[in-house]
Amino acid sequence: MVFTALLLLSASFNAGAQQDSIKTVVLNDVNVFASGKKPTQQLVHFFKANQSATLEDILSRLPEISLMRRGPYGMEPSIRSMNGGQINVLIGGMRLHGACTDKMDPATIYVEPINLENLQLTTGNHGFLKGSSIGGTLDMKLAEPQFNEDEKLHGSVQSGYQSVSEGFYEAAVLNYNKGRWAFRGSGTFRKNANYTDGTGDEVLFSQYNKTNFSLSTSYRFTNQTQILADVILDNGWNIGYPALPMDVGSARANLFSLGIRTIDASQKWQSREAKLYYNYVNHSMDDTKRPSVPMHMDMPGQSKTAGFYAEAFRRIGNRQTLQVRADGASTFLTASMTMYPPDEIPMYMLTWPDNRRNQTGVSANWQWKPDSVNNIHISARLDGVQSMLASEEAKDHISITGGNTNSRFDLLKNLSVSASKKLHKDLTLSANAGYAERMPTASELYGFYLYNAFDGYDYIGNTGLKTENAFNTEASLAWQKPGIRLQATAFYSHISHYIVGVVDPAYSTMTIGAKGVKVYQQTGWAQMGGAEASVQWKMASRLALVNTVRFTLAEHENGEPLPFIAPLKNIGSLRYVISNFSAQVEYEASAAQNRINEQVGEVSTPGFIIAHTRLGYGFPLGKIQLGLQSGVENIFDVAYREHLDWGGIMRQGRNIYIQVKLSF
């Protein structure tokens, strides 16, 4: 810990290399320092030693991301403590909206790591090129079929087991190419029973099952131009949420897209891409497996999104570049609840009254490098957003609370300026400042008695909400030499028209046992700031260290802490590789969080330190490569929970896993 602290302190004062606005996390099996034209863009996923890891396992290791956990599946990502409508979460540049009013199904649960090529993370002022956002964007870039004349068919099959939940993981991927065609197909199956926490207790309703199938097709007109088509079919069932009063019987998403891309350095616009897409999500909450339910309820939800985007990139002379993008999407949402009181007539209502949002936007990113040491970026985006109720029944629901049933149109404005300067050949200073806006979500506008299990209140939307606005600033210092990279970043955001639920005694509760009713209001401003630091150090030819730390403070204008702010956390990993054998030790250390918002039911969270160890070995069997992995997570069986975990539910205890992979 002392050694790590010294490294992080060194990062703060010495840090280096030019920082690009987009951070890319490579999901393939890679070395600690991935090669490429822009190595400073790549936060190499050093922690993906367990190949059966979920996407949530991967995201939780990134210094900018925290996860709000209601169960072991379907965790909601936040970027620097901003979440929900404050950030964009895209799949291959495409919008997908979850169909659950309780946020049980963020877009991240409908893809698997095997579907993806990388994760592109942009924070704050950099995060609105692909959509208006005050907090940033997470874009999960889909893996594409590979063209390889020397190897027309290749793929892998893997199988794994986890002791803590008696969990099974099966996956396969196959790539085939012939002539101008290439195909990539994958399949994943996960089955987990209830897990055991660090006290040895079984955590009830923590089971889940899912399958995921994908097919990608590529056709090359020429070496520069290709058509790409993608299909993803994801299906989850019997998904438990121990921190909520209901589970999920079914969560199903189907995604379809068709695109064309041209990359030709001889053209004025060297890179051009356009895509059409459509996706729909069906989600159904289920309380039939819960004991002593006072009244059975059905709560289905549906989301449908159709959209497009077109983007292009060009170089202007030797010192300037320009990236432009136009995109649009139309999303329909509906959710309902049917209550079955004993010996009475069932009661039905819309919890998301049928609503539609049409969004069209244009954005541009201009970069100018006047000399060898200075770099300037200017980014801008303009969005037109129309929100409307889509049925007379929906309008009837909203009129009950006195809401405006007419459609509304909002113009969202985003602008940022960034600059970087090489202070030394190994040392770069970067800074940016900007203004961004975001729309209120469907729940914030139209939600109708949405029960929040965390604070115990029913929530009602407010059609009169304004857009939420933010001034963001960020400064970064990075130092890089061969084999080592250190970076430290500080950030600050001032959010105006901050949206929060406020108790309204004029309303009566709908949910049995609810404490009262809150209506979404804009209560002034909020602010948040923090810092992140990272170290990537190849200490010797076979030994490498990666370490990250993050910390955030946030409060309302009255000085009250904002809820759901993760405390100081440090994650470190040391890996040794010799020939086909690798050994890795990891630790996660979190400080206690005593700065809490008691009005929403937050309680203090104690700090913890947990450790993991991982082993890997690979060897050839003829033309097949056999890979074996095993490890122990939470070695000392620590009973702990993260601050963003709902309901005081403890995390998994000691977990022994084994993984076998055949590659051909």
Structure commentary:
The protein is mostly beta strands and 664 residues long. It has one domain: Maltoporin, Chain A (Beta Barrel). It has helices at residues 2-14, 55-59, 392-400, 442-446; strands at residues 23-26, 65-68, 76-79, 88-91, 94-95, 116-123, 136-142, 153-162, 167-178, 181-192, 208-220, 225-239, 247-263, 271-286, 296-316, 320-340, 347-368, 374-389, 408-424, 427-438, 450-452, 457-460, 468-481, 484-496, 499-503, 516-522, 525-537, 543-556, 569-578, 581-590, 608-621, 624-633, 655-663. The protein has a 22-stranded antiparallel barrel. Strand 17 (347-368) and strand 18 form a beta hairpin. The longest helix is centred in the first third of the chain and has 13 residues, at 2-14. The relative contact order is 0.14.
What's the short version?
The chain is mainly β and 664 residues long. The protein has helices spanning 2-14, 55-59, 392-400, 442-446, and strands at residues 23-26, 65-68, 76-79, 88-91, 94-95, 116-123, 136-142, 153-162, 167-178, 181-192, 208-220, 225-239, 247-263, 271-286, 296-316, 320-340, 347-368, 374-389, 408-424, 427-438, 450-452, 457-460, 468-481, 484-496, 499-503, 516-522, 525-537, 543-556, 569-578, 581-590, 608-621, 624-633, 655-663.
